[in-house]
């Protein structure tokens, strides 16, 4: 498996991965726009030619906001999301970020466990963030 920054050939695969995993997946054009944004980090995990995982983030001043993490169901429980997260955090440090943030649905125990494993802690709650479902705000100091 290879973790790399999104490039034009991977955009359709990234879109299909997100669409299969996320209720609020980004559009193909939104994902394609990430390739050229200087304030964006969009990573893909490739298994052969298949995009099996994605992670999108924006850098605002000295903070990284992780906006989405997805792994195709048939590739879950293999450490892909963790590898994407590690690469994103390394990128954040390299960009001078001092903290990373993300939101996670309060009922998503596997994602919560993953983020806690990598040092994220809950710092707040967003009521109704995911189509009426609450989300924890997680933060990690870098």
Question: What do these coordinates show?
Answer:
- By secondary structure, the chain is of the alpha+beta class.
- The chain has a single domain (2-141), classed as 3-Layer(aba) Sandwich (Aminopeptidase).
- 29% of the residues lie in helices and 41% in strands.
- It has four helices and seven strands, in the order βααβββαβαββ.
- It has helices at residues 11-21, 28-33, 80-94, 109-117; strands at residues 2-5, 40-47, 50-60, 63-71, 99-105, 121-130, 133-141.
- A seven-stranded mixed β-sheet has the order 1-2-3-4-5-7-6.
- β6 (121-130) and β7 (133-141) form a beta hairpin.
- The radius of gyration is 14 Å and the shape is globular.
- The two termini are 26 Å apart.
What is the rounded Rg?
Answer: 14 Å
CATH H-level homologous superfamily name: Gcn5-related N-acetyltransferase (GNAT)
Output the strand order for the largest sheet.
1-2-3-4-5-7-6
CATH architecture: 3-Layer(aba) Sandwich
Helix percentage range? 25-40%
The major β-sheet equals:
7 strands, mixed
The domain count comes to 1
Mean pLDDT: 94
Which secondary-structure class do the elements indicate?
alpha+beta
| Low-confidence parts | none
């Amino acid at each position: 498996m290879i973790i790399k920054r999104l490039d034009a050939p991977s955009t359709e695969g990234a879109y299909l991965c997100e669409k299969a995993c996320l209720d609020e997946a980004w559009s193909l054009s939104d994902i394609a726009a990430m390739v050229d944004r200087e304030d964006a980090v969009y990573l893909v995990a490739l298994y052969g030619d298949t995009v099996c995982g994605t992670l999108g983030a924006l850098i605002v001043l000295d903070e990284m906001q992780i906006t989405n993490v997805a792994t195709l169901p048939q590739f879950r429980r293999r450490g892909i999301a963790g590898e994407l997260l590690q690469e994103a955090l390394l990128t954040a440090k390299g960009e001078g970020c001092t903290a990373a943030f993300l939101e996670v649905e309060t009922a998503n125990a596997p994602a919560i466990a993953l983020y806690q494993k990598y040092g994220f802690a809950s710092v707040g709650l967003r009521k109704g963030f995911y189509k009426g479902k609450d989300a924890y705000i997680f933060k990690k100091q870098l």
